[in-house]
Amino acid sequence: MKNFMLIANSGKEEAVRMAGRVREKLTAMGCVCTDAPHDDTECVLVFGGDGTLLQAAREFRDRHLPFLGINLGNLGYLAEVDRDHVDDAIRLLTRGEVSFEERMMLLGRVERGGRTLYEDVALNDIAIGGRGLTVLHFKVYVDGEYLTTYQADGMVVATPTGSTGYNLSAGGPVVNPRASLIVLTPVSPHTLISRSIVLESRSAVELEMMEHPSRKNALGLAAFDGNEVAELLPGDRIRICRAEETVRLIKYNKQSFLEALRKKMGDR
Predict the structure, then answer these.
(1) 58 — phi, psi (to 5°)?
(2) Domains of the chain
(3) Cβ(155)–Cβ(170) under 8 Å?
(4) pTM for this model (two decimals)
C-alpha cells in the first residue's frame, strides 16, 4: 500500500499529533497521504478510538475502502492498534502483509405517519432510549410478525461487531464479529425476564412506539452508533434490517477473537 487517507479525532490532541507523525513517516517512505478519499486511496487510517472509526466507516462506506484504527482512547475493540505498535502496523501496511475482515451493517429508517424522518446505516447498533428517566412502551415485530411489547428504558439492535458495545453494557451476549446475525437486547425491561433475542441476519425488525400510560407525550430518542438522530413520538416506527453495504477492516493483530476478548476483559 502506498496511498493513504488519514482521519484524526480533532478533539484529542494526541490523535492529531500521532496522525501528523505517521503522515511524516509515510511521506518519507514515498507514500501519498491525503485528508479526503480519491481514486488511488488504498487504506484509511483512523486515529482516536472506536467512536472515531465508527463515524468514518459510516461516512465513507460507499468508497469500499479498508479501515485501520489506531486506538488512543481507553478500550478499543475496533481500533485494535495501540500507540506502542503504530510503527509496526505501518511497516506491515506498506508491505501489504495484513488481512481483512468484512463486517455487516444495519440499515435503519425512522418513520412517522408513513413519512421517513431519518435513514442511515450503523456498524455497531441502532438503539432507542427515553429522554431523562422516561420508561418507553414499544412493540417489537420480526418479519412482520408481532413478537412482544416492552416496558423498558430502551432497546438495542446490534450487529456482531456491536455486541461488545452498548449491547454488552445492557447485558446482551458477546458475538464473534465475523458472524452474520442481529441481536435484540432490551435495556432495563420492567419484567422479571430480560433476555436478548438473536435473529438471523435476513430478519427485518420493527419497533413501534406506544403511548405512555401516564405521560401521553413522552419522548424517546433514536441513536445510530451512539449518535442521537431523531426524537420519537407515540406511533413512530423504526424499521431495521441488514444493510447491503459492509465495512472492511484491516486486521493487524493475529490473535484470535477469544484471545482478544480475554485481554479486553482484563484477564492478562
Answers:
(1) -70, -40
(2) 3-98+252-264 (3.40.50.10330), 106-244 (2.60.200.30)
(3) no
(4) 0.89
